[in-house]
Each structure stands twice: as structure tokens, then as C-alpha cells.
Amino acid sequence: MMKKFTNWRVSSYTEAGGSCVEVGRSSAGTIGVRDSTMEGKGSTLEFTRTEWTALLNSIQSG
């Protein structure tokens, strides 16, 4: 069953008309990431909170 994500937020690094990502949360607490240019019609990557934290830590540490 596909989860519904809500409260989508566009990255603060997005420029007008630029490509970027949106992040949302499901009622189950997972985090969804999608391409902002697809206007909600593309695929969504889904992360648990632990996976999301590990991803962000990895990105921040380079």
C-alpha cells in the first residue's frame, strides 16, 4: 500500500524555476523525498527516521 506523504517542503536551495527536491512525512513517520519539478507525479524515495538521519549525517560530513 502506498503511503500518503503530507507537508511537503521545498529545499531552501531551490531557485525560481530550478530543479530541486521536496521532503514530506507520512502518518507512519517515514520521510519521503521527491523531485520538485515533477509536481507530485514522480516517484518518491521513502526513508525511516534512522535512514534519514544517516543520510543527512553522510551528506554533511562530505
The helix count comes to: 1
Low-confidence region ranges: none
Percentage beta strand? 25-35%
How does the helix and strand content classify structurally?
Answer: alpha+beta
| Overall helicity | 10-25%
| Apparent shape | flat
Going across the major beta sheet, what is the strand order?
Answer: 1-2-3-4
What's the story with the biggest beta sheet? 4 strands, antiparallel
Total DSSP E strands: 4
How far do the termini sit from each other? 35 Å
**What string gives the helices and strands in order?**
EEEEH
Radius of gyration: 12 Å
Mean pLDDT: 86
InterPro entries: DUF397 (IPR007278)
Protein name: DUF397 domain-containing protein
Domain DUF397: 7-59
Pfam families: DUF397
Tell me what the structure shows.
This is DUF397 domain-containing protein. Residues 7-59 form the DUF397 domain. Pfam families: DUF397 (PF04149). It comes from Actinomadura darangshiensis. The protein has 62 residues and is of the alpha+beta class. The chain has a domain at 22-62. The protein is 21% helix and 34% strand. A 4-stranded antiparallel β-sheet has the order 1-2-3-4.
Relevant terms:
4 strands, DUF397, DUF397 domain-containing protein, 1 helix, 62 residues, flat, 4-stranded antiparallel beta sheet
Describe how the helices and strands are arranged.
Layout (H helix, E strand, L loop, with lengths): L4 E6 L10 E6 L4 E5 L8 E4 L1 H13 L1
Antiparallel strand pairs: 1-2, 2-3, 3-4
Organism: Actinomadura darangshiensis
Protein name: DUF397 domain-containing protein
Pfam families: DUF397
